[in-house]
Amino acid sequence: MGVIIVKKPDKQFSVQTIGAVEDLIFGAKSLVQNKYRETVNTDYALFMGAEIETALMAIPIERINEAGLGIRTAVICEAGVENMAQLLKMSKKELIKIQGVGERSAFQAMAVAQNFEDSLRKTLFPRLNPDAPTAFSDRLVKNLYCLLQSKEDYESCKTILDEFENQLYQELELARRVQNSFRWLFTGTEKKEAALQSLNNLIRFLDSDAGCDLDQAVKHYRLIQGTPLSEVWLDFTSNAAAYYALLEAITGVKADRQKRQGDLPLELVERVEALSLNTALMKSSLRGYQEFGAKYAIVQKNTLLGDEMGLGKTLEAIAAMAHLQAAGKTHFVVICPASVLINWYREIIQHSQLIPSSIHGSDREIRLTEWAEKGGVAVTTYETLKVIAIPAEISVDLLVADEAHYVKNPEAKRSQALYQLVKRAEAVLFMTGTPLENNLQEMSSLILRLNPEIAEKISQKEVLTNEYQFRLMIAPVYLRRNRDDVLNELPELIQKEQWVDFGSQEQKDYRLAVLDGQFMLMRRMAWTGSGVNECPKLKRLLEICAEAKENGRKILIFSFFRDVIDTLSQALIDRSLEPITGSVTPARRQAIIDDFGTAPPGTALICQIQAGGVGLNIQMASVVIICEPQIKPALETQAISRAYRMGQTHTVFVYRLLTDNSVDEQMMTILQNKQQLFDSYARDSVIAESSFQAVDVSEKSLIDRILAEERRRLSLPDQQTS
Predict the structure, then answer these.
(1) What confidence score (pLDDT) does residue 110 get?
(2) Which one, of 612, 614, 622, lies nearest residue 648 by Cα?
(3) Rg, Å, the chain Cα set
């Protein structure tokens, strides 16, 4: 459609044109001068005020005497003041009027109540609960939604206004002469031509790419403002991590500074903090602890990031690469398990302007050549790394090894392939939420590739018995933060043990399995009953699934065994998706997870724990069922972390299905002991106990011990294991 050129004054048309441009400028300036940021701070203060008052209402007045003051709280309670919130609303004079409360007692009581409030203000972190919204949380989430959704509109409007705003105002001032017929009669020819020219310039602008882009951005912005709250909360539920990151960026409310920095020594923290992280190539905001993690990886060059699963280590690695690319670096490599290759590819595109290349599959050599020529992020798997050759002339500016515990065994070919690449890389970032599964040697083997000197020192017993010395020793290479320390907004994690009996036939078959030393069969015997009535574990699982559906929840189910997965698939045939097992391709896994995201409540996703328990983000599930205890606690921890991670907005329920008087009892004891070992050695980036307690207990010796104990319990003769 051609541009209409005005050759003579047309009052109605000029009014419409000038009004359209003025409305466009007003809308664009409203977007650029976005008041939502100011409103977020105001609404945040109101929201937190209401949350603090709710918390104070839950603190009974009797707690005043925890300080041993001897205040007569009974008379205060009889006067109708039953909690701290009510007490804080009273004046000292009102409190003294209560029979039995003197001036000194009133002063002390008010001081204690104020201390409770001050403590809550320091420790209470905002948790936006979609299941129980309030007027304050509604407003806060809506404002955050508008900011997030209008990010691209903001950039578009700002760029266009910076270029055209002053010119448009000049054109408007001249073009307005056309609107006044009386004034037009007494306007000179030259000014009339200038006015008509300005009006035509405004018409051209409205029809130009810039004008159309501005119009589209303003219309989208106004559409966003009218989004119903139900849709806003739905977006929050699926994208909570982005909301909390933005809230943190605007309000400045962050996790405890020391915990955010992984309890590192002050000198190292200052060196890391001195780096200004360049986020120009990032599309997403970083949490405070994520920014510190990215800077730590850049400053220290060769590092092991051991943040607990679910904290967003992927985003930290992407931020580090984005910073380096902004500084002129060009070639990055990400090595990961095949199960998360597509997830890495997607996240790089979603969170940054970096260009990923998937070096995997039949066209891997073509993609590798393109990456070598153009640069970007080469994403490949541990298995593919064994068969490709990254050109020797290419300098790898940052090598990222995700789930780095895959290469803790130096004899494995995939480990050796990675170690060769480590030697060539300018900087190396190992990432794993479980750096220690069984013993200290596994953690040391990872550090050895990053800093041999530190690895050698931490093997000395005199170092291991000194917590402070050990912390200082590993600080330059190892950083770990825990969920409870930095993700204060996470909902509750409730873990329940569900004990059942064997079915009648299962009980008989279990004794035979113990007699024959069939350890793996013993572990899954409680799933062999024919039908629900003969399989108590299956019956309990179906009950949990039914309850989850009634409560609008989705379910993740994990088992080690393929035949158990087949049993579950048959039992849940109309309520579950295709199971994720080791034989499912990475692309298909991601497609299944995408389908799970849009599936109705009550849908179950069944996963082999070795495949679905690693590296996948499945926050849409809030019920996790583990079908049998695992030998390694890391498997269960990783499985739970698929759902209980940054972005989860619902309370997560974990059900462990266990059979009484079976191998499950001993397995649970082993799990607890191993978890304690991990907590002591790696959880807080320190070793709290001596090396003598980090004894490597092989799986075979554990199995032998369990079998011997089960035979003794069942009064069965000793037998060779198989």
Answers:
(1) 87
(2) 622
(3) 32
In tens, the pLDDT along 126-164 reads: 788 888 889 999 999 998 998 888 888 888 888 898 899
Concatenated DSSP letters of 589-608:
HHHHHHHHHHSPTT-EEEEE
User: What stretches in the chain show pLDDT beneath 50?
Assistant: 1-2, 435-438, 678, 680-697, 721-722
Contact present, 71 and 99 (Cβ < 8 Å): no
Task: Please give the angle made by the CA atoms of 550, 555 and 561, to the nearest 5 degrees.
Answer: 140
What gap in Å lies between CA 538 and CA 526, rounded to an integer?
Answer: 9
User: What are the backbone angles phi and psi of residue 689, rounded to the nearest 5°?
Assistant: -125, 170
Q: What is the pLDDT of residue 693?
A: 28
**CA pair distance 702, 669, nearest whole angstrom:** 12
Q: Which residues pair with 498 in a beta bridge?
A: 657
CATH of domain 256-485: 3.40.50.10810
Same fold, 52-127 and 256-485: no
Residue 529's pLDDT is what? 92
* CATH number for the domain running over 491-713: 3.40.50.300
Do residues 117 and 56 lie in contact, with contact meaning Cβ atoms separated by under 8 Å? Answer: yes
CA dist 76 → 86, 107, 603 (Å): 11, 13, 52
Which pLDDT score is estimated for 183?
65
3-state DSSP assignment of residue 629: coil
User: Is the backbone of residue 100 left (phi > 0), alpha (psi -120 to 50) or beta?
Assistant: left
- Two tokens at 604? 């179950």
Superfamily of domain 52-127: 5' to 3' exonuclease, C-terminal subdomain (1.10.150.20)
The whole-number pLDDT of residue 334 equals: 97
Which residue in 65, 122, 54 sits closest to 88, CA to CA?
A: 54
499, 695 contact by CB (below 8 A)? no
- In angstroms, the Cα distances linking 670 to 518, 629, 659, 674, 676 are 19, 9, 16, 6, 10
Asked if 573 and 547 touch (Cβ cutoff 8 Å), the reply is no
- CB contact set of 50 (below 8 Å; sequence gap of 6+): 134, 136
3-state secondary structure at position 65: helix
**pLDDT at residue 586, as a whole number:** 81
Collapsing DSSP states into helix, strand and coil, what is residue 624?
Answer: strand
**What is the helix, strand, coil percentage profile of the chain, to 5?**
60, 10, 30
Pairing of strands 555-559, 493-500: unpaired
Amino acid at 130: P
Q: What is the pLDDT of residue 695?
A: 29
- Per the CB < 8 A criterion, the answer to whether 80 and 86 are in contact is yes
CA–CA separation, 572 vs 53, rounded Å? Answer: 45
Report the distance separating Cα 146 and Cα 76, nearest Å: 46
* pLDDT value at residue 685: 42
- Contact yes or no for 385/412 (Cβ under 8 A): no
Nearest to 141 by CA among 129, 153, 150, 152: 129
* Cα(403)–Cα(432) distance, integer angstroms: 5
Q: What is the 3-state secondary structure (H, E, C) of 74-124?
A: HHHHHCCCCEHHHHHCCCHHHHHCCCCCCHHHHHHHHHHHHHHHHHHHHHC
What confidence score (pLDDT) does residue 698 get?
A: 55
Long-range contacts of range 376-379, CB-CB < 8 Å, 24 or more positions apart? 376/330, 376/331, 376/332, 377/321, 377/332, 377/333, 377/334, 377/348, 378/331, 378/332, 378/333, 378/334, 379/334, 379/336, 379/341, 379/344, 379/345, 379/348
